[in-house]
Amino acid sequence: MMTVPRFALALALAVFQIGVTVSRGAEPGARPPLATRNVVLVTTDGLRWQEVFRGAEESLINKKDGGVANVDALRRDYWRDGVEARREALMPFLWKTVAREGQLYGNADKGSPARVTNGKNFSYPGYNELLTGAADARINSNDKVPNSNVSVLEWLNHKPGYQGKVETVGSWDLFPYILNVKRSGLSVNAGWEALALAGKSLNESQVLLNQVMMQSPRLWEGCRHDAFTFPVAMETLKHQTPRVLYLSLGDTDEFSHGGRYDHYLRAAHDVDANLKQLWDTLQSRPEYRDTTTMIVTTDHGRGDPPRGWRDHGENTKGSDAIWVAVLGPDTPALGERKDTAVVTQSQVAATLAAFLGEDYCAAVPAAAPPIAEAIGRASQAAAVSAQP
Ligand SMILES: [Zn+2]
């Protein structure tokens, strides 16, 4: 220590004072390490930014355009006069917790746009962009074709410290193809698939979950109801303790294609309740508490009322618009973002890796850079340059 020059000590002190919550063996002058050791990524298919930021849409709370069965009940549950009260009624965890402790991107009404860049605005191109960090024009259908691109999940799963510690649980049965499980070796439970835990026998409640799931009437053959996907994910979290968990939900897309705005809103509300339960569980467990970041987003947007909200795709105006929420120990509590640069779906992969201290763009130069302000590095850099 005695031979260390004084400016190095001053620099180390300055870096320390920037306000890092955990310093795990930081070397003098090195960028302070992040607190995040685990990441949970959640997507809910095709949930519009309009409902996230504005709450229920009044012109769809009816039988004619929204297919609503009980208009009075839906209004009672989700209609409020002000935008703030309305969105909080629909997604209370996002607006009471994430908007206070984390960040929300994608409110086009406030100059914070978020978009997909694949130009297709449907699911396989979207999940590919989201998980690999770049759009791929060759992916132009939702056919069950194994993805030739390597996802950030596969990339992490090959790194020391992550092998066998990356889990995916999804509603849609395309995920084994999107994540190319034959090549990647990733653990994926998707579609109408029973819960199975590697190396563990199932307990009574897990057996019951499987029985109810496999005997339930199926609204959609290719998409398991989120009511089953979520408990499968929770059991996976509890018993496999992954460092990276990807939970992919699907009800929001299926119900809007079906023209049922009531089911769509209730599905969004359930997603929010699931996020709260997931977050509370993470914070209650020592292996995840204060060391886990949650990223929540969607694969595409949808069109506008009266009919376009049911659809999305190249020809549906506005369906490239998405939203991204981030909550965790390294995310500055800037809440609902305003007047930001455009955030793209392709940034999510490198953002996820960056929270774990991994440089995905160095390995995959085609991948878009992390959302710096969500990780707090931009504010750290600003603080460094502001030092006299
Ligand atoms: Zn769809």
Mind explaining what this structure looks like?
The protein has 388 residues and is an alpha/beta fold. It has a single domain (38-385), classed as Alkaline Phosphatase, subunit A (3-Layer(aba) Sandwich). 40% of the residues lie in helices and 11% in strands. The protein binds zinc ion. Residues 46, 123, 253, 257, 312 line the site of zinc ion.
Q: What distinguishing features does this structure have?
A:
globular, Alkaline Phosphatase, subunit A, single chain, binds zinc ion, alpha/beta, 388 residues, eight-stranded mixed sheet, 40% helix, disordered N terminus
Write the layout of secondary structure elements.
Blueprint: H1 6-17, E1 38-44, H2 49-54, H3 63-66, H4 71-78, H5 83-90, H6 92-101, E2 103-105, E3 114-115, H7 123-132, H8 152-157, E4 166-170, H9 175-178, H10 181-184, E5 187-190, H11 204-215, H12 226-240, E6 244-249, H13 251-257, H14 261-284, E7 292-297, E8 324-327, E9 335-336, E10 343-344, H15 348-355, H16 360-363, H17 372-375, H18 377-385
Parallel strand pairs: 1-6, 1-7, 2-9, 3-10, 4-5, 4-6
Antiparallel strand pairs: 2-8, 7-8
Helix pairs in contact: 5-6, 13-14
The chain binds zinc ion.
- How far apart are the first and last residues' alpha carbons, in Å? 25 Å
Overall SS class: alpha/beta
User: CATH topology, anyone?
Assistant: Alkaline Phosphatase, subunit A
Q: In the CATH hierarchy, what is the class?
A: Alpha Beta
Task: Bin the strand percentage.
Answer: 5-15%
Largest sheet: 8 strands, mixed
User: Hetero groups bound?
Assistant: zinc ion
Instruction: Tell me which oligomeric state these chains represent.
Output: single chain
Q: Count up the domains.
A: 1
Task: Give start-end ranges of low-pLDDT stretches.
Answer: 1-26, 381-388
Quantity of strands, as a count: 10
